[in-house]
Design goal:
The complex is a heterodimer of chains A (495) and B (166). With 495 residues, chain A is mainly α. In chain A, 74% of the residues lie in helices and 1% in strands. Chain A has one domain. Chain A starts with a helix and ends with a helix. The model of chain A has no long low-confidence stretch (mean pLDDT 87). Chain B is 63% helix and 0% strand. The chains are: A mainly alpha (495), B mainly alpha (166). The interface between A and B is large, with 65 and 78 residues.
Chain lengths: 495, 166
């Protein structure tokens, strides 16, 4: 423990250099800005900025990306509360009560409880990451290819089958991503797969093009076609920002409960920040002394979900940094940022890149403080962002989105691929097929394949290696249960 | 029970993609060495899974529609009905950019994209939108070329940007 403290102090000495503070500040400002914009999530932002990483040093770039990642969680709540259009999916639960509070002229306390709650949960979760990561590494160092493969299968199962409205559509999205992941040169034999002689495809499909295509182009096509002519009503920010004594008394237990709910969901690869926000909302609704206020703007219903989503996104850094396994679309793109530098997150990262990892973790503490300042006294500025007219907003998003894709290889082929993925994104959005599993499949698929083939090379082709090793067997067993149990339930219900 | 056309088409497309991957897989070499697992193993699994999932979707589509899907009518989703012109304008913007970027250069291509997308979202001020597009494109161009040393095509504006020392 003393050792961890020492490493963290060292991390602060890196995170507090002027340049890294600057990158962190740029990250949280961009993140908040993006979070506030309706329709633009953190995954898209990090993806658009990924091509920049070639010019920055890895520590600075990753500190900036981490800032965007959780800055967007803070910013998203502002949009949700004032516009009732969740900026990202983890804010849906907040929308239930937050927008109603704003309608009742209590926008100030709603924004305050979500910002302070995000800060409390984010900071506690960062402490937990700091303490937990070294422990996970101890275990992870003993993992072989079979265990890694099993953990990746688990991550695939949770992000595609457990989350979302339909197991079959989640799995379809996942396997589309896995298919895209097989395109290009096979890393182990040098054989080209599904490239059809197109030289641009030999390098494989870049996650930037897929993520930007699905999120930015697909979203723009969808919104233009289906909701660009709708009237939007922005709630006014009037009255005091301050929370009354009563508000505080009702908020803080909700923040703490939500942290306890949110953190594990992020840190065991159980994917997504949506489930814990809904769980927290349900918990608060059950425990409140003011059940009559739920559905009319209860402050606990804002405090809980907002804290839960921050705890969960911070928790997601544990599997990402210690195992190299992303549990959300944004985490998957962060993983690809590491890969751009030739760095593979995993237990060895904490030894080979100790400066980077601990600098990054220390920057989370600093970032949360910066975000509290950015989101409370300066909330008025962000409210103005909401008044950007839709045509200019989406035109601007597409300028930056296509820039991100084009600057990868200065190639029109990437722009065409981007449009194709945009059409795919439109279809997936319209017919309710989730996009996150496809992105995770694309980035994690080739890694899973490598681990699978390594495991079999070690076992000399004996497939039983996955079920004779206890950890691998247990993880694969749980994944199978997660897939089969809901299926059986639905069959039983129908019978 | 009649299936919704879109669900039917998507389901069949997934099956077809799986079949295409399966055909492609047969052209890949199998595993050698100790692993006995080669570059064709993962595509084979993907092909099988896509075919199965496509058939499953097809079954759902034919037996009352995909389960738990969002509402079919835009009104029930709180949206307006499909606006073809909006969809087309956004697409036109993206294709205009593809055609222009290597010839006319980054700034003009982004300005065209900006104006078309804004039009697609209902803006009726093409001159203003084009102007904003030029300014935005120019700002991004200068930032990338000057500050990040990332090369972007100057195109037709090369004489102007060139004399400005860029």
């Amino acid at each position: 423990m003393a050792d961890t403290f020492h490493l963290l102090l060292h991390g602060f000495s890196i995170a507090l250099t002027p340049f890294n503070i600057l990158w962190g500040l740029i990250g949280v400002i961009l993140g908040t800005f993006i979070g506030v914009l309706p329709g633009v999530g953190p995954a898209l932002t990090v993806a658009m900025l990924l091509p920049l990483t070639v010019k920055l040093d890895p520590t600075g770039a990753l500190i900036m990306f981490a800032g965007i990642y959780y800055g967007a969680m803070y910013g998203g709540s502002t949009t949700t509360i004032l516009l009732n259009t969740p900026g990202e999916s983890a804010s849906i639960a907040t929308a239930l009560e937050g927008n109603l509070m704003a309608k009742n002229g209590r926008a100030g306390p709603a924004l305050a409880t979500s910002a302070i709650g995000s800060f409390v949960a984010g900071t506690i979760a960062t402490v937990l990451v700091t303490m937990l990561a070294p422990l996970v590494i101890e275990v992870a160092l003993k993992f072989g290819p079979a265990e890694y493969f099993a953990l990746m299968v688990f991550a695939f199962t949770t992000v595609s089958a457990v989350i979302g409205s339909s197991t079959v559509r989640g799995l379809t999205s996942l396997f589309l991503g896995l298919f895209l992941g097989t395109i290009g040169i096979d890393g182990q034999t040098g054989q080209s797969r599904f490239a059809f002689g197109v030289p641009e495809l030999l390098d494989g499909i870049d996650v930037v093009v897929l993520a930007v295509g699905l999120f930015a182009v697909g979203e723009a096509l969808y919104v233009a076609a289906y909701s660009s002519r709708l009237e939007e009503k922005i709630e006014q920010l009037k009255g005091s920002l301050w929370m009354s004594k009563e508000d505080w008394k009702r908020s803080w237990p909700a923040w703490l409960r939500a942290t306890v709910i949110g953190f594990p969901f992020g840190s065991i690869p159980a994917g997504g920040a949506e489930i814990p926000t809904f769980l927290s909302y349900a918990t608060e609704k059950k425990l409140t002394k003011y059940p009559q206020e739920f559905g009319k703007g209860a402050i606990e219903g804002v405090a809980g979900p907002e804290a839960a989503n921050n705890a969960s996104v911070t928790g997601a850094l544990v599997p990402l940094l210690t195992l190299g396994i992303p549990t959300s679309a944004t985490a998957a793109i962060l993983l690809s940022a590491f890969q751009n530098y030739g760095i593979q997150p995993g237990p060895l990262l904490f030894q080979s890149q100790a400066d980077l990892v601990w600098g990054l973790i220390a920057s989370l503490y600093i970032g949360n403080v910066l975000l509290l300042i950015l989101n409370l006294p300066l909330v008025g500025i962000w409210v103005k962002v909401l008044t950007i007219p839709l045509p200019l907003l989406y035109a601007g998003i597409l300028v930056f989105a296509t820039l991100g894709a084009y600057s990868l290889h200065q190639s029109v082929v990437d722009l065409l691929t981007l449009y194709v993925f945009g059409l795919l994104g439109f279809v997936m959005r319209r017919w309710d097929i989730p996009v996150a599993p496809a992105i995770i499949g694309l980035i994690l698929g080739p890694l899973a394949e490598t681990q699978f083939r390594r495991a079999l090379a070690i076992s000399q082709g004996d497939l039983s290696v996955f079920i004779t090793q206890p950890i691998s067997a247990a993880v694969l067993g749980v994944s199978a249960l997660l897939l089969i149990v809901p299926l059986v339930f639905s069959l039983v219900r129908r019978a | 029970m009649k299936a919704k056309p879109a669900e039917f088409i998507i389901s069949v497309a997934i099956v077809a993609l799986g079949a295409a991957v399966a055909v492609g897989t047969t052209r890949l070499s199998g595993g050698g060495g100790y692993a006995r697992i080669g570059p064709n193993a993962a595509p084979a699994v993907v092909a099988g899974a896509l075919i199965l999932l496509g058939l499953w979707l097809l079954y759902e589509a034919l037996s009352g529609g995909w389960r738990n899907a969002i509402a079919d009518s835009p009104e029930a989703r709180g949206e307006h009905s499909f606006l073809t012109s909006a969809f087309v304008w956004v697409s036109v913007g993206l294709f205009a950019e593809m055609l222009l970027i290597d010839r006319a250069g980054f700034v003009l291509a982004q300005a065209a994209l900006f104006a078309c997308v804004a039009r697609g979202f209902g803006s009726i001020r093409p001159a203003r939108d084009s102007a904003i597009g030029v300014v935005l494109g120019l700002g991004v161009f200068l930032f990338f070329v000057k500050f990040l040393n990332v090369n972007l095509p100057a195109g037709w504006l090369k004489p102007i940007l060139g004399t400005a020392g860029i």
